[in-house]
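User: I'm writing a tutorial on reading structure tokens. Could you give me a worked example: one chain, its sequence, then its tokens, then a sentence or two explaining what the tokens reveal?
Assistant: Sure. Here is the example chain.
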Amino acid sequence: MFGAPMPFLPVGGQAVIEGVMMRSPSRVAVAVRRGDGTIAVTERSFESVTQRHRALALPVLRGAISLFETLYVGITALNWSAEETAREDKTAPPARSGSAVAGGALQGATLIVSLALGLFLFVVLPARLTGWLGFHGRLGFGLVDGGFRLMFFVLYLLLISRWKEMARVLGFHGAEHKAIHALENRAPLTPESVQSFTRFHPRCGTSFLFLIVVLSIVVFTFIGRPTSLAQHLLRIASMPLIAGVGFEFIRLSGRFADRPLVRALVWPGIQFQRLTTREPDLAMCEVAIAALERVRGDERVVKLERAEAKAGELAFIQ
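And here are its predicted structure tokens:
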């Protein structure tokens, strides 16, 4: 199915423990399969800070902000899925550890630690290793430094793909992609229909991360070899800009996935999705649909669906 004309709808998602999180411009829903076979769903409204402040919705800037929001929403969804799948009695109230304030503080701390670890592995460590190998020229240092970054990225994906405990999560990741493909192609949202679509999607986070690695090679080569703390901080400070540019490209790739040039540019990221997704079963697709149904009613999504459908009818008539 990849490469067929496909409307861009502002719906994305993430695999969680035994389930899927789906997000539209104003709603977030998480669906998980409990141990007794039932599906538990939670949903809430969510308004991005870029919607409340128009100045923050500028291209590139909105991408950097969206990255942090996505990380926070994703961690929250993961925590809820872990609690829900651990419940044996579906009538019992959800287990709560501490107050809501403490839970929010823990999620914030997790986000900070995750970002710090990522910056060390993909920004600081590659530069240190390249310096120890004796590369000092701008171009040579930038290419070797970028090569280390790409190597760490590939090793990270390989580790995830070989981790047996992650197999079902990767299956739900594939189900998330398939469900979004079905929505974008206005296909019936049934497990059998969703299952027929590809598990690869041009707007996947895996493709986004690969794009970040590639863009960082260009930007960091321009910045040059870091020889002081200030230069390391300059590299770190440039990451939101890199993420913002990557965000805009991913959005465009979703809108123009049928264009040959775009297909060629997103092809490497699609191949990396072979490591981060698995073919889901019908039960996984059912869970993904349960989450998607809760956010597809978002007013912006409905309007875009209708506009795309009308444009398709006009194109057919012409």
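What the tokens reveal: The CA atoms of residues 117 and 225 lie 21 Å apart. Confidence is low (pLDDT under 50) at residues 1-5, 311-318.
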